[in-house]
Design a protein that fits this description.
The structure is a single chain. The chain is α+β, with helices and mostly antiparallel strands and 772 residues long. Among the domains are: 73-260, no CATH class; 407-511, Phosphorylase Kinase, domain 1; 522-761, Transferase(Phosphotransferase), domain 1 (Orthogonal Bundle), CATH 1.10.510.10. 29% of the residues lie in helices and 21% in strands. The strands form 9 sheets. Strands 7, 8, 10, 11, 12, 13, 14, 15 and 16 form a 9-stranded antiparallel beta sheet that branches. A hairpin with a 2-residue loop joins strand 1 (34-35) and strand 2 (38-39). Helix 4 (365-407) crosses helix 17, helix 11 packs antiparallel against helix 14 (680-693) and helix 14 (680-693) runs antiparallel to helix 15. The protein starts with a helix and ends with a helix. Bound molecules: 2-acetamido-2-deoxy-beta-D-glucopyranose (NAG) (12 copies). One 2-acetamido-2-deoxy-beta-D-glucopyranose binds next to loops. Serine/threonine-protein kinase that may function as a signaling receptor of extracellular matrix component. Binding to pectin may have significance in the control of cell expansion, morphogenesis and development. Disulfide bonds join 325-342. This is Wall-associated receptor kinase. Residues 314-351 form the EGF-like domain.
Length: 772
């Protein structure tokens, strides 16, 4: 009995001491080392004293079983069109922490389910903001989207460098194949599932799932699978299966890889020993591959936690059998300075290592030397080659980074100015007057309905025909602003702007009274073959000149520039002479809409939105210039700003146009209806103006005034056409092949990815505008 106890105790002691020798301290003394089964190594800690600072504080929820660690993230207001919808996630579950600068956390799944009756979808999103030491690991995570016809999108920025990135998105869709059946294969190849790597190191980001957003003529996918899902996941941690479409656990969380680092740079940190994080004597400092920040590593031959004073401890290679001493011929000798040596048995010489000179009998000396010399020359050559290659690779990466920064776009700082009204009075209509005018808002009087409201035709007592717009419910706080805007709009007097005659404020929703423009929109005439007049090239040019002039006029308004914010062909009306009249100036837009109407988050629609809006959430005069560029392209090509008839990469007309132009294929995409009559020289000039308007960076786009003047110049050319000598065909050829601008060829690639992102949001807004 006594004997047995003693033996047990001894065994325990032996085991314990062995364990103590093997485990290096990972946390500060007297600090908990684990939360549940997850190790929490310093600089992370479960209390403030146990962590490097509060950024590395992990909260351990002990009431859960097993206890679960969480990383604190902050509530944020992301510069994004979605910022006013709440869904920020403040605690992320930590799956594991690695001292080489990464940790795994789990992120929730954004879901979007469609109501089978109404066709409306409940789009969900999450916003996440990491504290400064953390960011999503670039290239190790991917965006995965499940569900046909669903847009999944992740967008954000690096909060330390304030670099906003182009959104990453993908859309699983094959129009011929949208209804779930379990005979499809399980590859995530694009029909029901798509995935795309997230290339950016985001630290503030949003991801969104939006389903049923296309108005295209195909069987609605939600009839077979009502819910769609978007999530971020570590590469390889999710395998798609068709059954996930109908049988997905939406409360599931997916692991993502997060990078972490301390401080700024090694050099800066080493100057100040008190804040230098590599506390262990046997540690080394390495700058993070993508800055800022550095990592500490135990020197070779040591192991443990380099962030703690005695964290790195010698590895006993000899007892661990991790040495490469020749078995049977040499003996391993550990050195506490982090290394070991092999000593050859008597009668043999050499370094005793398998990959070294080994142990040989003393007599064979010469051959060994020859061998080792040639060996070291080889090693030297190899080493040089390696250094050369890594340097070259680094240079390439830096170049890429440079272009990336160049093209990432800068935040537009300019605020859209507020303009105050003058004394001129706006006609205030009574609700009775307008009820009479519209036969009590009869259905027959409806001219159109969209995301912003319903438009009625009305006849005033003085027999004037007007268009009356019933906006969506307004926010009472905005009323004053609304009135100022109405007063301002009433003062605009330009033959190419639809005149606002007055408003009625007696109803719950303000009513706006406009001049009636009888002949529909430019959009109808370009795209609806059944009721279109033939828009000749000459007429299209005229429309471009008139619209450009109207926008230039508004941008140079006396008090402050008036930004249209929604330039598109469906907002350009045609009167009985087919004179263009720009409609829908801002007024309806200042009224915030409710959550279901993502439309106004984006304000612009279809393919017209300025891609910089993603970063700035602001629309400026230069955004109008961009949208106007799309209108020009639409007039040239007769194609819709967004179309599913074009291949994926060309769905956005702006992108489609720029790439065709870049490849010298402009004539291929000119509208067949005008190609015979159009003057190639004029076409080229308009195309060039359009490509300048479509430049990525707002500041590189011309002003609306410059655009309008150039367009008017062409018109004079047109009038004197017969006096002009035609360009030789050779000259035309070179013109057609010339890239639209020198900057374009540099940033062409990123421009495309960026536009693809804006394309997605445009689609979201598109579907919501149209009819729901
Ligand atoms: C911790 O436990 C959970 C389940 O209890 C398991 O999924 C996970 O892999 C474990 N993590 C580690 C680091 O052992
Ligand atoms: C721990 O988790 C439980 C269950 O989710 C929750 O009710 C509780 O508030 C959490 N405790 C802390 C300290 O976060
Ligand atoms: C999370 O971080 C924020 C900001 O640093 C801080 O105000 C908050 O108290 C922290 N929450 C927890 C639970 O540590
Ligand atoms: C906003 O937050 C509340 C409370 O956290 C939640 O019930 C609600 O669903 C959230 N709304 C949205 C749109 O996510
Ligand atoms: C950390 O967790 C992730 C996700 O669960 C897993 O893939 C990875 O292997 C883990 N790493 C370590 C070092 O345990
Ligand atoms: C769409 O699906 C059909 C039927 O499965 C297939 O034949 C076709 O190739 C797919 N189209 C694309 C573009 O993947
Ligand atoms: C399932 O979809 C595939 C591909 O579109 C089609 O060929 C097949 O006929 C469908 N099966 C059923 C049972 O509808
Ligand atoms: C949609 O497709 C159906 C069948 O191909 C066709 O009859 C219908 O006219 C189309 N509708 C539109 C608006 O194109
Ligand atoms: C949704 O509606 C379609 C037809 O409109 C029907 O075939 C389908 O069964 C419905 N799905 C559910 C889940 O009700
Ligand atoms: C996904 O599939 C690969 C290859 O078939 C497999 O190695 C991996 O473990 C799977 N991952 C998951 C999360 O099932
Ligand atoms: C869904 O996943 C959560 C978390 O992983 C789990 O707790 C829950 O039991 C799952 N539900 C179903 C129905 O599988
Ligand atoms: C904590 O330290 C990290 C790395 O040195 C730093 O980036 C972060 O700003 C610090 N956090 C606080 C709250 O001081």
């Amino acid at each position: 009995m006594q004997m047995g106890f003693c033996l047990n105790q001894m065994l325990l002691l032996v085991l314990l001491s062995a364990a103590a020798a093997k485990t290096q301290p990972m946390s500060k003394p007297n600090c908990p080392t684990k939360c549940g089964n997850v190790s929490i190594p310093f600089p992370f800690g479960l209390t403030e004293l146990c962590s490097l600072n509060t950024s590395f504080l992990i909260t351990c929820n002990q009431t859960l079983s097993p206890p679960i660690p969480f990383l604190n993230t902050t509530q944020q207001s992301l510069s994004s069109p979605f910022h006013f919808l709440n869904a920020s996630y403040e605690k992320l579950r930590v799956l594991n922490i690695s001292l080489d600068g990464q940790l795994h956390v789990s992120l929730p799944v954004a879901t979007s389910c469609v109501n089978n009756k109404t066709g409306e979808s409940d789009n969900q999103f999450f916003t996440i903001t990491f504290d400064t030491p953390f960011h999503l690991s670039s290239k190790q995570n991917k965006l995965t989207v499940l569900g046909a016809g669903t847009v999944g999108l992740v967008s954000g920025q690096d909060s330390t460098s304030k670099t906003p990135y182009a959104p990453t998105s993908c859309v699983p869709l094959n129009i011929t194949n949208t209804i779930y059946n379990n005979t499809h294969d399980d590859s995530c190849s694009g029909n029901f599932c798509c995935e795309t790597p997230i290339q950016h190191r985001l630290s503030e980001f949003i991801y969104i799932c939006a389903s049923n957003i296309f108005e295209e003529n195909y069987t609605k996918p939600y009839q077979s699978h009502p819910c769609s899902y978007t999530f971020l996941v570590k590469e390889g941690a999710y395998n798609f299966s068709m059954t996930d479409l109908i049988n997905f656990n939406r409360t599931k969380m997916f692991p993502v890889v997060v990078d972490w680092a301390v401080g700024n740079t090694c050099r800066a940190a080493q100057k100040n020993t008190s804040s230098y994080a590599c506390k262990s004597k046997y540690s080394e400092c390495h700058n993070a591959k993508v800055g800022p920040g550095y990592h500490c590593k135990c020197s070779s031959g040591f192991r443990g936690n380099p962030y703690l004073p005695h964290g790195c401890q010698d590895v006993d290679e000899c007892t661990e059998e991790s040495h490469d001493c020749l078995k049977g011929r040499s003996i391993c000798i550990n050195s506490p300075a982090g290394s070991y040596s092999c000593s050859c048995l008597k009668g043999y010489e050499g370094d005793g290592k398998i990959n070294g000179s080994g142990c040989v009998r003393r007599s064979n000396r010469k051959i060994i030397i020859a061998f080792s010399v040639s060996g070291s020359i080889l090693a030297l050559l190899g080493g040089t080659l390696y250094v050369y290659c890594t340097l070259k690779k680094r240079k390439l990466n830096r170049l890429k980074e440079h272009f990336f920064q160049l093209n990432g776009g800068q935040l537009l700082q300019q605020q859209i100015g507020r303009y105050s009204g003058s004394n001129e009075l706006t006609k205030i209509f009574t609700v009775e007057e307008l009820k009479d005018a519209t036969n009590n808002f009869r259905e027959e009087m409806v001219l159109g309905a969209g995301g912003e409201g319903t438009v009625y035709k009305g006849i005033l007592p003085d027999n004037r025909t007007v268009a009356i717009k019933k906006s969506r419910i307004s926010n009472p706080n905005q009323i004053e602003h609304f009135i100022n805007e109405v007063i301002l709009l009433c003062q605009i007097n330009h033959r190419n702007v639809v005149k606002l005659l007055g408003c009625c404020l007696e109803t719950e929703v303000p009513l706006l009274v406009y001049e009636f423009v009888p002949n529909g929109t430019v959009y109808d005439h370009l795209h609806d073959q059944t009721k279109s007049f033939r828009l000749t090239w000459k007429r299209r040019l005229q429309i471009a000149v008139e619209t450009g002039g109207a926008l230039a006029y508004l941008h140079s308004a006396t008090h402050a520039p008036i930004v249209h914010r929604d330039v598109k062909t469906s907002n350009i009306l045609l009167d009985h002479n087919l004179t263009a009249k720009v409609s829908d100036f801002g007024a309806s837009r200042i009224i915030p809409l409710d959550r279901s109407e993502l439309t106004t988050l984006v304000m612009g629609t279809l393919g017209y939105l300025d891609p910089q809006y993603f970063h700035s959430s602001q629309l400026t005069e230069k955004s109008d210039v961009y949208s106007f560029g799309v209108v020009l392209v639409e007039l040239i090509t007769g194609e819709k700003a967004l179309s599913f008839d074009r291949a994926e990469a060309h769905r956005n007309l702006g992108v489609h146009f720029l790439s065709s132009m870049n490849e010298g294929r402009l004539l291929d995409i000119v509208d067949g209806r005008i190609i015979d009559e159009a003057n190639v020289e004029q076409l080229m000039v308009v195309a060039n103006i359009a490509s300048h308007c479509l430049r990525m960076k707002g500041e590189e786009r011309p002003t609306m005034r410059e655009v309008a003047m150039e367009l008017e110049g062409i018109n004079t050319v047109e009038k004197h056409q017969w006096e002009k000598v035609n360009l030789s065909s050779e000259e035309t050829e070179t013109l057609l092949k010339a890239p639209p601008s020198s900057s374009f060829s540099v940033d062409g690639v990123n421009r495309r990815t960026m536009l693809a992102g804006s394309d997605i949001l445009n689609r979201i807004s598109f579907s919501l505008t149209s009819g729901r």
